[in-house]
Amino acid sequence: MSEEPDGVLPRLSSGALGGARIAWGFVTALTAGPALTLLLLSMRNPESITYEVLAFQLLVVIVALAGGMLPAVLTAVMSGVVIDVLFVAPQFSITVEHPFHAIAVALYVIVGVLVSIIVDNTARRARAAERAAAQARELADTDQVRTALLSAVSHDVRRPLAAAIAAIGGLRAAHDLSPDDRDALLETAEQSLAALTRLITDLLDVSRAEAGALAVSLAPTDAHSAVLAALEELSLGPDDVELDLDADLGPLEADPVLLQRVLVNLLANALRFSPAGVPVRIATSADGAGAGIRIIDRGVGIDSDRHESVFRPFQRLGDSDNTAGLGLGLALSRGFAEGMGGSLTPEQTPGGGLTMCVRLPLAATTERSGA
């Protein structure tokens, strides 16, 4: 439903005010009205009609500010009736012996309506300002991501691309290269193109994960085999990683390839921020209805209020290290974990550091299904 343009009187409905605020207006009218009436009756004298009328008019304004038009109109009518019945002779009867009585009620209604229109328009403008601020925040976030993407891509794509072009150019231009020089140039070109392939693959995987179109093949997966495969891929040994694996942990319901990529990304990140000579710890354990794989480092850690920001694509810790890739590792890891029906959450390491916990469901084994 489109909003009414400025200058058009709002309908006798909730307008820009919510239902809770309108209800509060009615509550104010039904409680403050009788209280004001009792107070004025206890203080009245033959000369007091003026401030009694003004007091009820003030009540109409207060109710209009609190709940808008509908409670204000109700209060205006009730105020006119109460004044006529209790404060104007003859008492305890509704009579309109003087045009003042009808004019008073009409003025109450007009005041209530006008104040309500002001309140309604103010609420509309406040909501419009909130929407504009939210849209500005979204645009700022988009610009930040775009800037980070351009900065990362300009460095991380240009570097291997330039190396590959230089190596291929050297091969084409030189005709008297030794076998060793030729092999070195070919190796440079191959490594550079492989790096470009990984970058493009990561970008595509991030887009698929965010679009919910990630290809996942779930199967019973041994967590310890996935851990060992990740260690082998990174060429890590006992000096680099300390293992604390639960020997009784059952198979996970996971995609073995995606799980290995998650662990490789998390291990590489943990090693990068761990102090020299301090191994990263990997622990597995049952975790409720599933299992948890924790990658624990003793680095500087991350403040808890920044835990979620590290999972945004193209974000690097500190945003100053241009050797750390596109900053997609943690975004990919969370996307892969959620794609497998699990989660990836950061935790503070007791004593300092960061713990990344991958939680995945346990595979439904035959024994469990028959239990």
Q: At CATH's second level, what is the architecture of the largest domain?
A: 2-Layer Sandwich
Work out the number of β strands. 7
User: What is the N-to-C succession of helices and strands?
Assistant: HHHHHHEHEEHEEHEEH
| Low-confidence spans | 1-14, 318-324, 366-371
Question: Could you please say which CATH topology of the largest domain applies here?
Answer: Heat Shock Protein 90
Mean pLDDT: 78
Q: Give the biggest sheet.
A: 5 strands, mixed
Number of domains: 3
- Which band does the percent of strand residues land in? 5-15%
Integer-rounded radius of gyration: 36 Å
Distance between termini? 54 Å
What is the spatial order of strands in the main beta sheet? 2-4-5-7-6
Mind telling me the CATH superfamily name of the largest domain? Histidine kinase-like ATPase, C-terminal domain
Structural class: alpha+beta
- Into which percent range does the helicity of residues fall? 55-70%
Shape: elongated
Number of helices: 10
The top-level CATH class of the largest domain is: Alpha Beta
Describe what you observe in this structure.
- The protein is of the alpha+beta class and 371 residues long.
- The chain has 3 domains: 19-133, no CATH class; 157-211, no CATH class; 219-370, Histidine kinase-like ATPase, C-terminal domain (Heat Shock Protein 90, 2-Layer Sandwich).
- Helix content is 58%, strand content 11%.
- The chain has helices at residues 19-43, 49-67, 69-87, 99-156, 158-173, 179-211, 223-233, 256-273, 329-339, 366-370, and strands spanning 219-221, 241-244, 252-254, 280-287, 290-296, 343-348, 354-361.
- The strands form 2 sheets. The chain has a 5-stranded mixed sheet with strand order 2-4-5-7-6.
- It is elongated.
- It starts with 18 loop residues before the first helix and ends with a helix.
